[in-house]
Amino acid sequence: MYQYSSTSKQISIHTLTKALNRLGDLLQKENKRLELTCCWGIISLMYFHSRAMTQDVDAIFPANPANKQLLIKLIKQVGEEMGLAADEKSLWFNDSVSFFGLETTSNVIIFQHPFLVLKAASWEELLAHKVHASRHDKDIQDAVRLLKEIKGKEKEQIYKAVKKYAPFTPHVPEPLLRKRFEGVWNIAFKK
């Protein structure tokens, strides 16, 4: 597992798109097609277009060790070619989210290349993590945006999913989780 990128270098949508296409081309040369679940900054950048930059791509890497090692090798190659974080402890495309995992994959495609497809986790699961974190305004803004994407569900159905997918660490007591959810709901729907 790689740590969250410690570099202050940010990646624009243009640079990220170029890097992901290069990664897809390298996978094609290896005749290996990968479909990965991703979260956080790449979704804000490439799907919602709510940020100008991201620090890295957070994804769940393949469980197959050979595929995982190939992916890491190619990520490092692209990083070196493009001047992106490519050292052992910090990669521009990493599996730093693997410590809590993602349980879901949606049909929402964030990036598509014939040999590399990045999909978002479900909006409910991503919302749970953002409500749980509530570290700063970006988390709240992201949570509001995610909440507005969830269609056809009642408030209590959504809260049950948030409660189900909320990470275990650090522990947030249920009353505090509920309070944070209510705050996001009120911002999203101006109540």
Report on the structure:
This protein is of the alpha/beta class and 191 residues long. Helices cover 48% and strands 16% of the residues. The chain has seven helices and nine strands; from the N terminus they run βαβαββαβββββαααα. The strands form three sheets. A five-stranded mixed beta sheet has the order 7-4-2-9-8. Strand 8 (109-113) and strand 9 form a beta hairpin. Helix 1 (13-29) packs across helix 3 and helix 6 (155-165) packs across helix 7 (174-189). Mean pLDDT is 92; it is low at 1-7.
Which helices and strands occur, and which strands form pairs?
Layout: E1 11-12, H1 13-29, E2 34-39, H2 41-46, E3 53-54, E4 57-60, H3 65-82, E5 86-87, E6 90-91, E7 93-94, E8 109-113, E9 116-120, H4 123-133, H5 137-149, H6 155-165, H7 174-189
Parallel strand pairs: 2-9, 4-7
Antiparallel strand pairs: 1-3, 2-4, 5-6, 8-9
Helix pairs in contact: 1-3, 4-5, 4-6, 5-7, 6-7
